[in-house]
């Protein structure tokens, strides 16, 4: 695999381009929109993530010699289309919700304006990034809200594919997680990394004492010792023996956590290790974290549940052509109409209506109806605009890229959470916490 | 991101290496094992996938200057350990189940023998590849078995992250899918690719007729026309008008499929398009495919359900130290013992016991007990060995790599399916179809 992302796409994107360039319709200016028809069953809100990664991938979406040769050899498109692909780079405009923003059914998360051929090709990439990253961020945000300020680390790299792991670490961080175990996520996105030792390290040594002493010798007493390889109470005792009462933390990865954590806290205090923290990491999700709210836990580590979207590993977003120009140059709203899978045609803009306490009350989607299809509204104290320009003429706004863009998204999420009605944070199943209205 | 996969790992792997090299235990010869404690809830068998990708990733698991510099800057390990990492390449042996093999709780899917420091570092990579790929393959195999020989294409790239999409296409192909929409999977793994057009192509044109004519002009009458953008019956009529009765196929992506498919078949036959095939692609999974077994469907396309493991997006595999040498050079079996998360220590070998009809009856796991910890058994007619050597002295067996390795895995799965008891193919929840026994 080269650095090109051009083949990270479905064959039918290229065959559509091929046929549409042939009959000329491929040059029609078009507007595509990515949105979710619904939230995952019972969720009250979703959190957008993926757009920052998407912008960087679009920049790598170029057909180099290797890609063109493969397409030629496999006769995916006509030779004329290969020439067009060789010159292709995305030159259109992208608007969308900021990463870290809350979203609801119908929220126009990304709109892409370009010629049909330019824009249709991005479908798979848009959806792969938004669907996976938003799935993780939406699950992670629920965990953060029930952790009540205690730090959470993402450590699920081993439960998702090796590149997805990096995206998951980033999405969880945007949603309020504090760190990740994944080193590449640390390097690429500037996320703090964490981790000390697994059970294998203890089992490698002849005794648990040997293992603890080796770890303290290497990292000092402020390290985190994993105490549940053999017997937890014995492990805690040996940990304090090895590191002293200044031991940084103990980690517990198994057992009936509320009971075990209380017993370990009592034991640590009894041994004089009153500042030693307790980290728990045993198959946690938002429900088990909520169940530990009364226990003396100091930090959580979450794996499987966060990287798989806690039951909803794909956010269900779709990418639809909603408007295009006709031969007379006029914008025409379009939508599929045969079935239950309805979409709303036309250019959209969106705002969140807030009440006098700055609590969100409604997701307002304005549908363009003017001659140019523009959807206008008057922003104000009570109407917070939701869409920002992510890319102009094929150039990404650098504010949304790299570690800085990731940090900004994380900060934005924290602000947005303040606006949501308190019912948003109930874990039980229910309707979206605010309704979506079309204007 | 460079071509190095060295940071696709959890920080604690490197901190364990650091501490273990410091006290010398890191040089102990060790044996790690990857296995699943259980199958996903109610599944009867699992299908192994990921090992071929793992072997290629291990080859890219090298610390180049960029990785070393980042680790130095972030003080992840001591300078002496950086020197060791700079020289690192995996030089050990790997045995495991072939890709495409069926597996059961406790099956020793991968065993890695090397020094502790060399082998522990691969944990995240081993589990990321096995967990995700086997999750997809296990779900895909169930879909293949209920499709009753009708071809199935994987088209879920948009429902998983952009690199995971490529792995998913490969895993589904190993499990018996026939094609993928993902072009990079076609290029990297030699999987046939498919796809013609989405609803956007129809909506781009002024009329459905225009769209169909454009597609037929580009690809000839043997193309597949998507007929459900507006009204299905009208779409079918226009499709045959545009392509003639030699139309290759129509695709239906919505509606109550058993009813719709029957009506479309009748309509096509009435129009004389008796050889025109019907492809369906509407949020299918193993249950809806089974529900279509009596309908005149010719081919299926599956997206979300296959790339997300149909409810089980991670296969739940773990990677455990099961044996290591002590200072006297003797092998010692080791296992965590504190909790419900039990593992069985010791070197393992595995065979499937077949009865006189060559039907599988038992998963036999032989635990090493000799001085060298070897687990021996006498293969024979009724005892099929399950483990093969995947890598020797750090060099992968080329038979398991690339497109050829992928094809071989697909062929192996087809053979293995012949052995499973018929109850394996029931979709309903139940116990693993054969028991696991330790010897």
From TrEMBL, chains A, B:
Nicotinate phosphoribosyltransferase N-terminal domain segment(s): 7-131
Record carries keyword Transferase: yes
GO biological process: NAD+ biosynthetic process via the salvage pathway
EC number: 6.3.4.21
GO cellular component: cytosol
GO terms for MF: glycosyltransferase activity; nicotinate phosphoribosyltransferase activity
PANTHER family linked to this entry: NICOTINATE PHOSPHORIBOSYLTRANSFERASE, NICOTINATE PHOSPHORIBOSYLTRANSFERASE PNCB1
Protein name: Nicotinate phosphoribosyltransferase
Organism from which the protein derives: Agromyces bauzanensis
Lineage start: Bacteria, Bacillati, Actinomycetota, Actinomycetes, Micrococcales
